[in-house]
Design goal:
With 667 residues, this protein is an alpha/beta fold. The chain has three domains: 7-188 and 239-311, TIM Barrel (Alpha-Beta Barrel); 197-232 and 328-342 and 534-587, no CATH class; 349-533 and 589-665, Aldolase class I (TIM Barrel, Alpha-Beta Barrel). It contains 21 helices and 31 strands. The strands form four sheets. An eight-stranded parallel beta barrel has the order 4-5-6-7-8-9-10-15, surrounded by four helices. Strands 11-24-28-27-26-12-13-25 form an eight-stranded antiparallel beta sheet. Helix 11 (349-369) packs parallel to helix 17 (511-520). The longest helix has 21 residues, at 349-369. The N and C termini lie far apart (52 Å). Mean pLDDT is 92; it is low at 1-13. It comes from Paenibacillus chibensis. This is U32 family peptidase. It holds the Pfam family Peptidase_U32.
């Protein structure tokens, strides 16, 4: 196809539609690919360096420092821009190397960094570097309050959450003036950005640190109510495809049209760049006579997966799930796979000893440097009033009322909250917020918390930066939930400076990384130590399989009631709960249990130990709380000796398929 882009003395001229500037942003995985793509009609490229980015799984698909410098010089000579991804979470050991890398990128004159970890923002500001900052899709920006908070921190562009529809994007753009970048083509995750921890729990390979092993591409079966449903690869989504919707993207105020594909070859990326550039330019030239379908067949014939517009125009449902080509586990047409169904590792004495070995050096450092801390607290997240009352009766210090209540339970009402606050005794009642908060959620919670008589709450469990900004004015104490993904002390300090009294460590932390964090932490840290936490948080609704499709077999669930949907492989069964917002929570098939490591963690200075109690029957939740309450009492009094762990465990028996140490079993 013939493509035209206006040139002035060899320099590309920016695209404009009226007063709206439009950027076509292309991925480049290697310097050789860059040299071809930068000559194509894109306006900017994004790439990764030798470390600190989300594409570390495929060797050779990142740039050396020398190549970054040369790429910037070439791009600038053509009037184009280079954005560098520094978009994974930093461990403590990586902080100093990150400082040096950021200095290098500033000296290389890159046009912006794409970042996830708030530690990177803090480092850039601390060092006074002139580096524009773009919020990565892994920062999961999904509401106006979060955008405003990022503006106040100096962020100049946001890559929107993959689940953001174009009308929401338009509202945020008009209300904030923030530059918005939107994925228009390529591979999309089924889970909300930085809210998939399954790869970490099973393999020790963090999806927030560029090492995801793609358990979403496994061949699961869907099971519910004693029936098995036809579900080939029910978590494997189609490729994003917005070629036919250039007008809607521009109308929504999207300024940067982003193509995914830093691990694609040059010919494929060039095909996409040329096609989308031609469509954009044709629309700018003749918007009324624009032919959406021109050359669409060419893209369809060369697709890697089937196509979807994902969440651009609302929830796509089962139409978003791919059943052919790379969606069936294959890795970029090479015939290899990321991984095959793998069981969660069992907790055993040998593994516990190994984890203690991983932790010992860092824990000794923490013990030697930390001043005496208050006694550790026990928190319990509950799903209903019966669980909440049980948690209070068993002596939980902090009771978290879930903001994402698993059905068939109903959300906590004002009357429920007031009743619990009146009966709390020495315990604290903390109101949890939804993990993903829409504009409607903000309006509802602001009315509940500040619109009438003040609730006698002891605090809020906040889930995103927008919630921190919106509710700080109400003067409730705030605790940071696990979705804040705190992986290093700089990020913890950032949230401490925002007014949080403590933060929850990232659930993806390995033993060594946790030890390093505890050794350096200045803000009190909470850890999830028991339960079946959400390891994949999705807008995608798996329950639709059971509502829209006919069953193909019969089989009861092994560990949870039949009315709970289960994703099943030959390696295990993962329960999936639907919450009151319609979102799905995929849980571990086993229970996380760190009871044997309590002495080590208390000694290291963990401030609060959390039980994720939502899926438990009340009697089982009582047993778990009793065991951890006893552990805290024994270890606080230095009474733990031979046989103490067995005494603490008592009648503790797994409710699910056994116990695991989760991500902590990896170094």
């Amino acid at each position: 196809m013939d493509l035209k882009i206006e040139m002035v003395e060899g320099i590309a001229v920016s695209r404009w539609f009226g007063k709206k500037e439009i950027e076509l942003l292309a991925p480049v995985g290697t310097f050789e690919i860059f040299k071809e793509v930068i000559e194509a009609p894109c306006d900017a490229v994004y790439l990764g360096g030798p470390a600190f980015n989300m594409r570390l799984m495929r060797k050779g698909y990142n740039f050396t420092l020398e190549e970054i410098t040369e790429a910037v010089n070439i791009a600038h000579s053509l009037g184009k821009k280079v954005y560098v991804t520094v978009n994974n979470l930093l461990s403590e050991a990586e902080v100093e190397d990150a400082r040096e890398y950021l200095r290098f990128l500033a000296k290389a004159r890159v046009d912006a960094l794409i970042v996830q970890d708030f530690a990177v923002l803090s480092l850039v500001n601390e060092m006074g570097l002139q580096l524009p900052l773009h919020a990565s899709v892994m920062m999961n920006v999904h509401n106006l309050e979060m955008v405003k908070a990022l503006q106040e921190l100096g962020v100049t562009r946001v890559v929107t959450s993959r689940e953001m529809d174009l009308q929401t994007a338009r509202y945020i753009r008009v209300s904030s003036g923030m530059e918005l970048e939107y994925f228009i083509h390529g591979d999309m995750c089924v889970a909300h950005g930085a809210n998939c921890h399954y790869s970490s729990y099973v393999f020790g390979m963090s999806s927030s640190r560029g090492k995801c092993m793609k358990p979403c591409r496994w061949d699961y079966r869907v099971k519910k109510d004693g029936s098995v449903y036809p579900a080939e690869y029910p978590l494997a989504v189609k490729d994003m495809y917005m070629y036919e919707h250039i007008p809607e993207l521009i109308e929504a105020g999207i300024c940067s049209f982003k193509i995914e594909g830093r691990m694609r070859d040059a010919s494929f990326v060039l095909m996409l760049v040329n096609s989308y550039a031609d469509a954009i330019d044709r629309y700018i030239e003749d918007p009324v006579g624009f032919d959406r379908m021109q050359d669409a067949q060419h893209l369809y014939e060369h697709r890697k997966r089937d196509f979807s517009t994902a969440y651009a125009f609302g929830k796509p449902g089962l139409a978003n799930i791919n059943r052919r080509y790379e969606g069936t586990g294959k890795f970029y047409s090479t015939g290899r796979v990321f991984s095959t169904p793998t069981p969660e590792k069992e907790m055993g004495e040998q593994r516990i000893t190994e984890v203690r070995g991983y932790l010992s050096g860092s824990l000794e450092e923490a013990q030697g440097s930390r001043q005496e801390q208050p006694a550790a607290r026990l928190s319990v997240r509950v799903n209903n009033m019966a669980q909440a009352r049980a948690a209070l009766e068993e002596g939980a210090d902090d009771v978290y009322l879930s903001g994402d209540v698993f059905l068939p339970d109903l959300p906590f009402t004002r009357q429920d909250i007031e009743s619990l606050c009146a009966a709390k005794g020495p315990s604290r009642i903390i109101l949890g917020l939804p993990r993903m908060m829409t504009e409607l959620h903000f309006e509802q919670y602001l009315q509940l918390l500040g619109g009438g008589r003040r609730l006698d709450l002891d605090g809020l469990l906040v889930t995103n930066l927008g919630a921190v900004r919106a509710f700080r004015q109400l003067d409730y104490p705030m605790i940071g939930d696990a979705s804040l993904n705190v992986y290093n002390h700089i990020a913890a300090d950032f949230y401490g400076a925002q007014g949080l009294e403590r933060v929850t460590a990232s659930p993806e932390m390995t033993a060594g990384h946790l030890g390093d964090l505890l050794a350096h932490a200045r803000v009190p840290l909470e850890m999830t130590v028991h339960g079946s936490p959400t390891v994949m948080y999705m807008e995608h609704d798996l329950y639709e399989y059971t509502e829209l499709l006919e069953p193909v077999g019969e089989e009861d669930n092994r560990y949870v009631p039949n009315d709970v949907l289960v994703l099943m492989t030959d390696k295990g069964e993962n329960p999936v709960y639907r919450d009151q917002h319609g979102r799905n929570h995929l849980l571990l098939s086993k229970e996380l249990c760190l009871l044997p490591l309590m002495p080590d963690l208390i000694g290291a200075g963990v401030s609060c130990f959390r039980i994720e109690g939502a899926p438990y029957p009340v009697h089982a939740l009582r047993t778990v709380i009793q065991a951890y309450r006893k552990a805290l009492r024994l270890y606080a009094k230095a009474e733990a000796g031979a046989g103490a762990e067995a005494a603490v465990a008592g009648d503790l028996k797994p409710v699910f398929a056994g116990y695991t140490l989760g991500s902590l079993q990896f170094n």
